[in-house]
Structures are given as C-alpha cells and as structure tokens.
Amino acid sequence: MPRLHKIALTVSILLLLILNKKVYENRVTDYLVEEQGYKKEEITSVEGVWGFKMPKFYTTVTFENEPYVEYTYYAHDGVRQFDYEIIDGKQKEMSVEDLKNHE
User: Domain span at residue 85?
Assistant: First the structure.
C-alpha cells in the first residue's frame, strides 16, 4: 500500500474515533437534559471514551452535586446508566443508596 494511502487511512480512522466520541457525548447529554430533567449547569463533565473491551464506546459523566462519583452510560441502542465508580478515596464507604444520581 502506498504511503499516501496509509496516511489517509490513519487520518480517516482517527476522525471516525473522534466523531464517535462526540456522538456519544451528545446522546448522553441530550438524554440527561431532555429525559432525566437535569440542567446543563448540574453536569460537570460528559466525556466519550474509546474502550478496549466491549463496548468500544461509552460515556462517563460527573455531576456537580457528586464530584467524587463517575457514572458510566451506554448510548448504543438508547441511553442507559450502566455503572458508577467512586473516584475520591474519601468517599469509598458510600452505598448505592447514598448516590444522588444513580438510576
């Protein structure tokens, strides 16, 4: 394969990955605002992630009222919250009942 073709293929794949991340971020943001009733100010971050395991794309969300919890959302066939991770060691003793944004 000529070098130019390899470069074009690599650039195309990178663009596809970036676009997929943005699509998933937008789907989850729309879901949270339009269907779950959150205000955009209540959401600290929505980040599309390219994973190595299944699924290949998912989204992590951090809320203003729980900066120590990172929620995982899948947006493949509809949007749903799948998991959460406590990212602040001080909060490790929290139970699911203590989470404010758990669905």
Answer: 3-98
